[in-house]
Amino acid sequence: MIRPIQDRLIARKLEGSRVTTSGLILMAKEKAMLGLVTSAPESSQFKADDVILFGRYSPEEFIYNKTQYFTIKEDEILATSDDNLQKVIPVRSYVLVERDPDVGMVGNVFIPETSREKAQRGTVMAIGGDVGLVKVGDSIMYGLYSHYELKTDLDLLIIKEDDMHMVVEDV
After folding, report:
1. What is the DSSP letter of 140?
2. What is the pTM of this model?
3. Is residue 124 part of a domain?
4. Closest alpha carbon to 76 in 92, 62, 89, 61
């Protein structure tokens, strides 16, 4: 038996893709990885059998009894999901965003094609418990490399609140 200590969880990576009943497809090979918690400290907000999303370079992998596991700190977890993977739920200061289609305009401001990679725009779909600057439905701008992608039928991202640049209010 293995038991995590301090603020760490023990989990197994979920391989391949998982499809929800709503059509949400989560790919384990993309920037945001999927895992299944196998063991957590009693004080943890996460429990065994929780599905977690985390960055590719966050966990430390190990093998125990011929099974591959990883250990990860709780503050490196981006989001969790319900049992059927129908809903991605950001944790702490993370936000779930649906990327807007590229139109080259922000309000009345034209963004030249050469600059479009530097700032992106999306709509906030869900927020973690520590988020205070944005709310669900807000249109936001964020940096090109400041997010984790989820491959779905929608273009979904997980972004830390600190990595958002501004809220856009169209008039």
Report:
1. E
2. 0.76
3. yes
4. 92
